[in-house]
Design goal:
- The protein is an alpha+beta fold and 285 residues long.
- It has a single domain (17-272), classed as Aminopeptidase.
- 29% of the residues lie in helices and 22% in strands.
- It contains 8 helices and 11 strands.
- The chain has helices at 30-47, 54-59, 96-101, 140-155, 175-184, 213-218, 222-229, 260-272, and strands at 17-19, 22-26, 71-77, 87-95, 111-112, 122-131, 157-167, 194-195, 233-234, 239-241, 246-254.
- Strands 1, 2, 3, 4, 6, 7, 9, 10 and 11 form a 9-stranded mixed β-sheet that branches. Strands 5-8 form a two-stranded antiparallel sheet.
- Strand 10 and strand 11 form a beta hairpin.
- It is globular.
- The two termini are 35 Å apart.
Length: 285
């Protein structure tokens, strides 16, 4: 049986967003978690060229030790039916109690998180984000961020963090975007993860004066751009992940920088007795 440290047991769902045929909510069964793992495998391994273990290749699932106790945010397109094929997006959400149950956060395998795990208030690690190729031009990504907003509001999350990736394993090929992130978006010292010494790759590969910010931003993956629009910061140093064929960076977002309007919206809806996850809820994105 799945452990339930990361799940809500309240009568009201933590996330309940519907828009046209799309529904955004947390996985509610082993079958739905399996569908998320299958989607992750298709995107990460079949599309992006990550290297699976033999067990993952045989099952065609991306699986690790955190999956059984965290929350899995799903984007479900009911126009495709109600089974596994309807799951077109997923995000993995790990709060502090889940990390404590597993001996630490997932990203601690690559980054020294410093004081982040002891940050005042609830903290949330975001990861394993992907959307099916056929759903990337629609509303799925925007609605998933609304789902994350609902989750942040429900659990009163003070800080979000996680890993984000640039494609490829040659840091010199990514010198411009890495240097731009280092010089323009470095987290303050008290919120700054640092790549583990054995895996540390410097992001400071170009002088600040030599950087064209517009050109650098054009080279950033959409997910990293989205975090920066939320007021996000990056940690110090990158990590080469050869299994996933990526160059990983650490991202930190203080929710009080971005959720004021969202909180006011939900507080008003709660006072009025209205549903707290309407389809028109403000998005963190």
């Amino acid at each position: 049986m799945r452990e339930t440290i990361g799940a809500s047991h309240s009568l009201e769902p933590v996330v309940a967003i519907k828009f046209d045929s799309l529904e955004i909510r947390l996985a509610a069964s082993e079958a739905e978690i399996d569908a998320a793992q299958a989607l992750r495998y298709r995107v990460f391994y079949e599309e992006m060229g990550a290297q699976p273990t033999p067990d993952m290749a045989a099952a065609r699932r991306d699986v690790d030790r955190f999956d059984g106790i965290c929350d899995h945010l799903l984007a479900i397109d009911h126009a495709r039916g109600n089974g596994a094929d309807a799951v077109v997006g997923t995000y993995r959400l790990i709060r502090r109690p889940v990390a404590a149950a597993r001996g630490g956060f997932y990203s601690a395998a690559e980054f020294d998180l410093g004081a982040l795990p002891d940050h005042a208030g609830e903290i949330l690690e975001l990861g394993r984000s992907c959307i099916d190729a056929s759903a990337r031009t629609g509303s799925a990504a925007r609605l998933m961020w609304r789902g994350i907003s609902a989750y942040v509001f429900h659990y009163d999350i003070a800080l979000m963090f996680g890993c984000a990736s640039l494609p490829g394993t040659d840091p010199d090929a990514s010198a411009l975007p890495l240097s731009y992130l280092h010089h323009f978006h470095l987290a303050p010292p008290e919120l700054r993860p640092r790549a583990l010494p054995a895996r540390f790759v410097t992001m400071d590969r170009m002088a600040k004066a030599a950087i064209d910010p517009v050109a650098a931003q054009a080279l950033l993956p959409p997910l990293i751009k989205g975090y920066l629009r939320l007021g996000g910061f990056v940690g110090e140093g990158a990590v080469i992940d050869r299994q996933f064929n990526t160059t990983d960076i650490s991202i930190v977002v203080k929710t009080d920088l971005v959720t004021g309007r969202y909180y006011r919206h939900y507080e008003r809806r709660a006072r009025e007795g209205a549903p707290t996850a309407p389809a028109d809820a403000p998005s963190l994105g």
